[in-house]
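so my prof wants the structure for this chain in the tokens format not the other one, which i didnt know existed until like an hour ago. anyway here's the sequence
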Amino acid sequence: MKTILIAGGNSGIGLQAARDLLGHGHRLILLGRDPRKGEAALASFGTAADRASFVAGDLSTHDGVRDAARRILAQHDRIDVLVHTTGVFTFEESRTTDGLHPFFAINYLSRYHLTQLLLPALRQAEQPAVLMMTAAIPPTDDVDFARFPEYPSFNFSRDRKPIQLANHHYAAHLTRTEPGLAAGVVNAGSAKTDIMRIAPWYMRAAMKVLGPLALDSVETSARNVVEAVRHHDWHDAPAYWAKPGHFNKRTPIKLDTTTTQRLMDISHNLTGA
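here's what i got, hopefully its the right format
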């Protein structure tokens, strides 16, 4: 039985992954911002709820990440797998209390920060793994990180790719610096989840019309995460799963190490982790 922490596991794809992993006999820790959603998620597990717990935490701020990590480590000295499914979908110019754009803070930096703080528990696992869910962003070196991490006058179409790609760089960094730890990035696909609630009206309208034909099911979107937890044949190199539901089709993450180190240095300076 593995102990698996799913950040964002109280809704959407994360919740579906939690249900599937409970079905395989594992123990789950769900981390989310809304206690009501957390309680509802636990209630939906039926008799398997005795192998699941919920921790409320706001991952959009440094203090929120630190508080969540402190409470998790107080209850668990070993975490076998950490899964990041948290994410926001916003076109607006706004800032967290740390002065960062929420898209950057949640879709990348919180993942770096939380993982770094939970490394002591991950190191206690026999075959630890970290999985990060993103949009369909393949690992590539042709991305400009000049605006990283401030992203002034945030522009979704321009800034989303380098922010999401930072997850790939972190996966490469983890496997290079943490012996025995596997890391991967999973394309979430186009499943209809609560993340679309703040999308522009025209995107929501298109989803409503085209959804039955164009969208993946949450079961399909969660499948690669579930299979990556259950199998270890990918642990030899950081991996990217581009196609939802196709676990055996994965790409090794090979990125410029100088760029990776620069991004990790900036991430460390921002968080202290």
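also thought this was worth mentioning. Strands lie at 3-7, 27-32, 52-56, 81-84, 129-134, 182-187, 239-241, 250-252.
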